[in-house]
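It would be a great kindness if you could assist me with a short task in structural biology. The matter concerns a single protein, recorded as an amino acid sequence and a row of C-alpha cells. Kindly check, if you would, that the fold set down in the C-alpha cells agrees with what the sequence suggests. Thank you for your consideration; the sequence and its C-alpha cells are set out here:
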Amino acid sequence: MVALALGLGLSGPGVAAGQDGPVNPLAQRDPWSGTWRNEQLSVVLERHGQGWRGTIVMGADSMPCEARAAGERRLEGAFVVQGTRFPFQATLDGDALVLTSDGESYRLQRERPANPLGQGRPPQPANPLAGGASPGTPPGDGGKGDGLLGGDVPADWATWRHPLGFTLRHPPTWRPQETEAGLAFVAPDALKDAQGQPLELLLLNAVAAEGVRQPDQPEAVAFLDQQLQGTFPFLRRQAAPVVRTVGGRRVAELTWTGKNPLGRDIKAVAQLVIVDDQGILCLLVGDATRVGERLETARRLFGSMSKGKAQTDARLVGTWRHEKHTFSGTFSSTSIRTIELRADGTCLDHAQTLAGMDHKDSGGNQTGRTDVDSGGSARRGQWAGGGGKLLMSWADGGSEEYTIELSGSSLLLKSGQGQPRLYERVR
C-alpha cells in the first residue's frame, strides 16, 4: 500500500513510507533484524552489541553468521561452513535485502510479522485470495447468485480469475492489480492528491484463520484494529462490528475514521468472512466522502467471489531442475533445485548445495580441501498454473508466484525477486 500511504499524507509521524506491515510509532525499527527469504535461502539476523548475529539457511545447511555496519545501508560479515569462514556483504534496496558472497547475489524479502488470526503462525498463503480452493468444487457462474457469498452483480461487470480457482466480478473500468499487499483496485476516476497519488483504494486478501470461526470474534476484531492502526495510526474504530448474513455466511463489517496528518478526513471500511480456514478480507480506505460513495460497489464486488477447481496446466506436469554454478578463486559451489509438479495438484521441492574449497599455503601449494554436500531437503505443497503463471504454496507456510515462459523442455520462471531462472525438464 505504498502509493496509498503517500497519497493519504502518511509520511509524517507514526508511519514509515514504503513499509507494508504494522509500524510501532514509538520506536524506530532496526532495518536489519528479522527474517529475510527467497526461493533459495533464508537469513535471520538479530542485533548483538555493535553488530548483528544470525543464521543463513540454504537447503539443509544452517550456517551461523555475524556482521557489522559498513555504512548506512550496508553490512559486512562472514558465515561459517564446517569451520571455514566465507565473507559476505548485505545492502538494503527498498524493502529487499541483497546478500552478496564471492560475486553471487541473492535478493530476499523481509518475512511479514506473524498473523494473530493464525495463533502466531505466518499468513498462509501469502498470494492474494490464495488457498482454500476445493478441487472438487465447481466454479460459479460469474456472479449470478452462486458465488462464495451469493451476491448478484451487473451483467456488464468483468471477471477476474486466479489460477488457484478464485473468481470475482468487478466494474469493467476498475483494473485489478496483484500486489504483495493483496489484489488492489483503483477506480479510473479515483480522487488523487497534488502529486497524482490515489486517495482511495480497494484491497482484497486472504489470511489463515485457524481457531477463528466467526468474523466478529474478539481475536478477529483485534487483528483488524492492529493492521489498520499500524498503517494508519490516526484511525479509530467506530462501535462494534455490524454482522449481516450473505449467502448463508456471516460477514462482519467494521468502520474506522480519523484525520490524517494533512487534516483530511479518512475512512476505512473492512468486510471479513471466514471460509474454511481462511479469513477473506475486503478493505476500502481513503477520502471519507469517496469511501461512502464506493461502499455499495465494494460490498457487491466482495459478495461476487466464487471458488472452483485450481488450474493445473498439463504441460507443466513433470519434474524440473535448475542448477547454478559459482567459481571464485579456489572456491566453487553448485546449487541444485528440483521441482516436481504432479497431475493431482501436489508438488515436491528438493534443494541441494555442493561446495568445495582448496586450501593453499603462502607458496601456492595445496595443503588440503574442504567439500560440503548439504544432502538436500524436501518439502511438499500444492501448485496451480495457467495463464502464464505458476503458484506453489508449501506446507511449511511459504509460497511462491512466478510468471512463466514454456518452450519445449525449458521452463523460465520470473518473479519480482532476483534474476529469472531457467529449469530443464528431467522427466
Notes: The first helix runs from residue 2 to 7. Confidence is low (pLDDT under 50) at residues 1-28, 113-147. The chain has three domains: 31-110, 116-307, 314-425. The longest strand covers residues 346-360.
